[in-house]
Specification:
Length: 205
């Protein structure tokens, strides 16, 4: 991991200004606490049984979070990337549950492509809440966006077949699918690579 300072966080600033009503003064107040970090393909950012204390915004690259069952099977929980196909769940590389509950994370985070992230701590965010009520509104906005994305994800898991889930993923995120290995797509759908091959062949018929 390489840590850098003084980076111009254009994408993160644009994202905040698009979704909130902060001004340049508030942005300066927030951005002075941000670190810019780089990870290489194959690195692990956080591993299982860590307690998360940071929020990470992905500027570029590709990351996945995954869990491992008691039988040793991997299940990809989320992919993180920053393109026009992304939503809030893809942009923030974070275990929100671990941060908010201060409990151990059940997930590991693997870097699939070299990446750059902008990092700020939960304690810094909490401090901003006390300095200006606007930041509390910002927090609510991002919480609502994250909840909507999470609810859609679980509805997909509960109501769609693996084939329907694959078709939805391919429709919503076609460029992401081109960057992922068959193994990672299969682990996201909850099937093995052989089953995924059958699904893909049936879609081409």
């Amino acid at each position: 991991m390489l840590i850098m300072g003084g980076e111009y966080m254009k994408k993160l600033k644009e994202y905040f200004f698009e979704h909130t009503q902060i001004n340049d003064e508030l942005w300066q107040q927030f951005s002075q606490n941000i670190r810019t970090v780089h990870y290489a393909k194959g690195d692990y950012i956080y591993v299982k049984d860590n307690i998360w204390t940071e929020y990470m915004y992905l500027n570029y690259g590709l990351i996945r979070s995954f869990i491992i069952s008691t039988e040793g099977k991997e299940f990809t929980r989320q992919f993180y990337f920053n393109t026009n196909e992304s939503n809030v769940g893809n942009l923030f590389v974070t275990d929100f549950r671990s941060i908010l509950t201060k409990n151990l994370s059940s997930r590991a985070f693997e870097v699939l492509e070299d990446c750059e992230l902008h990092v700020f701590t939960h304690s810094e965010v909490t401090s901003l809440y006390h300095k200006n009520h606007t930041w509390e509104k910002v927090g609510r906005i991002f919480t609502q966006l994250a909840y909507i994305q999470m609810d859609e994800y679980y509805c997909t898991l509960l109501t769609l077949t693996p084939k329907e889930h694959y078709l939805k993923l391919k429709s919503q995120m076609p460029n992401l699918c081109k960057r992922l290995s068959q193994y990672h797509i299969a682990s996201f759908l909850g099937v093995n690579p052989v089953t995924l091959s059958r699904i893909k062949k049936s879609c081409d018929l």
